[in-house]
Amino acid sequence: MSAATQSIEDRLRTGIEEMTRTEKQLAGHILRHYPMALLGSVAQLARAAEVSSPTVVRLAQKMGYGGYPGLQQAVRDELEAQLVSPLVKHDRWAGDAPDTHMINRFADTVLGNLQATLKQIDHAEFDATAALMADPKRRIFATGGRVTGPIAAYFVAHMKVIRPGVELLEPLSNSWPPALLEMQKGDVLLVFDIRRYESSVLQLVEMAVEQGAEVVLITDPWVSPAATHARYRFSAQIEAPSAWDSTVAIQVLVETLMAAIQSLTWEETSARMARLEALYDRARFFRRK
């Protein structure tokens, strides 16, 4: 991903090794309180992060924004992008569309999204997430919004084969209270939430955290508000030459995660699959040629 297309959070994380001690302290404060930390003045941010005002200005320049006003404008642009409607998305890409077939344009964008998404995944965090979900002592719950709910359902359908104790929580569903009642400390809630972020998803996350659940969030570059409650968070690139965002990179990330979990639980998973196939055969579920 080029520097021009990196989010502010990505720029902070990728550049943190080259920062001074006070700049790292400031970057950590911004990441913990993003985006609110950047909506005040230089003096307010410096005071909150316990650094000097020149440190704030220097970090903004080092990030490539020219100064603090440029950094604040970038924040406002990101916040605006979170709320953009399908109509506005269409107008944005249609005005500058190259003179090539839609298949080529869309494929190029999606492949770029996929490469950028996988490149920025922290392998240690990915492995830790897989291990968390492979732990038989933990139950797994999954939920999503209006658009991402089907991805959560896809995940659950496959995970029920891989291991027991997996449940789908439908958006705005009356299944929430019974599920929350059964949710124990250490259970895992996998959440899908991309722009425009849904209040119901955040509400469910907050209630799950109160029950002691560990939250894994799959979101977009602008980051769902649920990120403040997540133990692990993965951001996927979703922009496409369409009125709607593309979920291809999210789907690949989900399938890769399931493959990693399966590799950790294969002894039990293979036995479950064998029993399941026997039940399918007995029920004559699939057609034979």
From TrEMBL:
It holds the Pfam family HTH_6. The keyword DNA-binding applies. Keywords: DNA-binding, Transcription, Transcription regulation. InterPro entries: Homeodomain-like_sf, HTH_RpiR, RpiR-like, RpiR-like_SIS, SIS_dom, SIS_dom_sf, WH-like_DNA-bd_sf. The keyword Transcription regulation applies. Residues 6-82 form the HTH rpiR-type domain. This is RpiR family transcriptional regulator. It comes from Thioclava sediminum.
